[in-house]
């Protein structure tokens, strides 16, 4: 059973004691990310994440931070998304206080030295190049660019090379002062610390009390408008074509959120899913096939991604659209839906054996929902999904004017794909 406490500075602490593990994770989740940026500072959230690992007064450089954590066998990292940024350390449960010390020191006392900023620019540009050279990864960003265009939701989290190269120390300190405040930051501690549970708020207060409320700048609402199918091509000489074919859906917390999750799993969320069987096992058109539902606080979508032979991309598109249409026209067999629910239940059980995944579950739900949806509540909601719910959602989202197709490959002419986008 988790506990939620508000500390004296307004910081919210979520503690999730776990039995049967020898680890504990400290995760700091901040409600900010690339959707909270503008065109001029696009990429600052991600760059700032890197800079927190570059040294404090107590731990003067990256080596000092990493060697201290390596010295206790800890795992540690950070991540930046569209609507949240997270920093975590996972270690043996008796090292939880050291983990708090290091994470809080990074967040509150980082130096942001100009020489480190200049050096890190090269690292981040190579990270950007890595993503762009990997079509299976870049296709996700390209699809969101197609959906949302020239607004924060449609821009890459990593930013542009132009912005990365121009950032100065003042850009980071200004963004930090605005976006990293006690009112939009959450500390999640998960793991085997049941004996110290009562003392946890006092420990966290000790390390994070200096984090004060900030003049937080909220994100602008996403603008969505579509009255016909849309296509975006990224020309690249590749050995296969990478595609993302999907539709707009809805934001997190909506009534049919769990039905949409189930629909995505049915379509392409496992090796027994419909599109995996059709595209890979029956036709031999793809090695990797996946359908996913993405939920933000103000938007959402469902899409299928696959890497297919260049000469057979039209066939692959037709197969995906046929399965979308089938889901909208024909009720799912109840046994298939039950198998899908059991898959979700089993995957979640495996995921939540690890303290870092447990911390991430609770932290992300607090950021995105303003409340905690426990795993038990999530599974109860999934259990309530019916075959009619699946069909209703499919009918709502799988419509001709809502289709979107992003492709990476040796293509320049959209016209050859226009006539395909029909359900």
Give a verbal description of the structure.
There is one protein chain. By secondary structure, the protein is of the alpha+beta class. The protein has 2 domains: 206 residues, Cytochrome Bc1 Complex, Chain A, domain 1 (2-Layer Sandwich), CATH 3.30.830; 189 residues, Metalloenzyme, LuxS/M16 peptidase-like (Cytochrome Bc1 Complex, Chain A, domain 1, 2-Layer Sandwich). It contains 16 helices and 11 strands. The strands form 2 sheets. A 6-stranded mixed β-sheet has the order 1-2-6-3-5-4, with helices on both faces. Strands 7-11-8-10-9 form a 5-stranded mixed β-sheet, with helices on both faces. A hairpin with a 5-residue loop joins strand 1 and strand 2. The model has no long low-confidence stretch (mean pLDDT 97).
Features:
11 strands; five-stranded mixed β-sheet; six-stranded mixed β-sheet; 16 helices; 18% strand; alpha+beta; Cytochrome Bc1 Complex, Chain A, domain 1; globular; single chain; 423 residues
Question: How are the elements arranged and paired?
Answer:
Blueprint: E1 3-6, E2 12-17, E3 23-30, H1 44-51, H2 62-70, E4 75-80, E5 85-92, H3 96-109, H4 114-132, H5 135-148, H6 161-166, H7 169-179, E6 185-191, H8 200-208, E7 230-235, E8 241-248, H9 257-268, H10 274-282, E9 289-295, E10 300-308, H11 313-329, H12 334-351, H13 355-369, H14 375-383, H15 387-397, E11 403-409, H16 415-418
Parallel strand pairs: 2-6, 7-11
Antiparallel strand pairs: 1-2, 3-5, 3-6, 4-5, 8-10, 8-11, 9-10
CATH architecture of the largest domain: 2-Layer Sandwich
**Mean of residue pLDDT values:** 97
- Number of DSSP strand runs: 11
Largest beta-sheet details: 6 strands, mixed
Task: Sketch the topology as an H/E string, one letter per element.
Answer: EEEHHEEHHHHHEHEEHHEEHHHHHEH
* Strand proportion: 15-25%
| CATH fold call of the largest domain | Cytochrome Bc1 Complex, Chain A, domain 1
What is the CATH first-level class name of the largest domain?
Alpha Beta
Structural classification? alpha+beta
Would you identify the CATH H-level superfamily of the largest domain? Metalloenzyme, LuxS/M16 peptidase-like
What helical percentage do the residues reach?
A: 40-55%
Shape: globular
**What count of helical segments does DSSP give?**
16
Q: Could you give the order of strands across the largest sheet?
A: 1-2-6-3-5-4
């Amino acid at each position: 059973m988790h506990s939620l406490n508000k500390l004296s500075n307004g910081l919210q602490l979520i503690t999730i004691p776990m039995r049967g593990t020898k680890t504990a994770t400290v995760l700091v989740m901040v409600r900010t990310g690339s959707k909270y940026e503008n065109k001029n500072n696009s990429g600052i959230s991600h760059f700032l994440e890197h800079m927190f690992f570059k040294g404090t007064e107590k731990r003067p450089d990256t080596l000092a931070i990493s060697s201290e954590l390596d010295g206790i066998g800890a795992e540690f990292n950070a991540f930046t998304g569209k609507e949240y940024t997270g920093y975590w350390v996972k270690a043996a449960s008796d090292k939880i206080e050291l983990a708090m010390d290091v994470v809080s020191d990074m967040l509150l006392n980082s130096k942001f030295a100009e020489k480190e900023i200049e050096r890190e620019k090269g690292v981040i540009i190579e990270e950007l190049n890595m993503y762009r050279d990997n079509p299976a990864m870049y296709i996700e960003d390209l699809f969101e660019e197609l959906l949302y265009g020239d607004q924060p939701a449609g821009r890459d989290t990593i930013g542009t090379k132009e912005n990365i190269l121009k950032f100065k120390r003042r850009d980071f300190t200004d963004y930090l002062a605005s976006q990293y405040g006690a009112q939009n930051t959450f500390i999640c501690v998960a793991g085997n610390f049941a004996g110290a549970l009562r003392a946890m708020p006092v420990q966290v207060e000790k390390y994070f009390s200096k984090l004060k409320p900030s003049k937080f700048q909220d994100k602008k609402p996403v603008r969505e408008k579509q009255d016909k199918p849309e296509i975006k091509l990224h020309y690249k000489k590749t050995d296969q074509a990478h595609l993302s074919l999907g539709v707009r859906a809805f934001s997190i917390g909506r009534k049919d959120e769990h039905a949409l999750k189930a629909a995505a799993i049915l379509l392409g969320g496992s090796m027994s899913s419909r599109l995996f069987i059709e595209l890979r096992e029956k036709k031999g058109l793809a090695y990797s096939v996946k359908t996913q539902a993405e939920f933000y606080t103000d938007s959402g979508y469902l899409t299928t991604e696959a890497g297919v032979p260049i000469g057979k991309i039209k066939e692959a598109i037709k197969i995906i659209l046929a399965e979308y249409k089938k889901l909208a026209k024909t009720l799912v067999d109840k046994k298939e839906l039950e198998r899908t629910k059991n898959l979700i239940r089993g995957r979640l059980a495996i995921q939540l054996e690890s303290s870092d995944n447990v911390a991430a579950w609770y932290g992300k739900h607090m950021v995105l929902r303003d409340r905690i949806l426990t795993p038990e509540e999530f599974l109860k909601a999934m259990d309530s999904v019916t075959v009619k719910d699946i069909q209703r959602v499919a009918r709502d989202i799988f419509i001709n004017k809502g289709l979107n197709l992003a492709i990476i490959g040796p293509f320049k002419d959209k016209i050859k794909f226009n006539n395909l986008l029909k359900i």
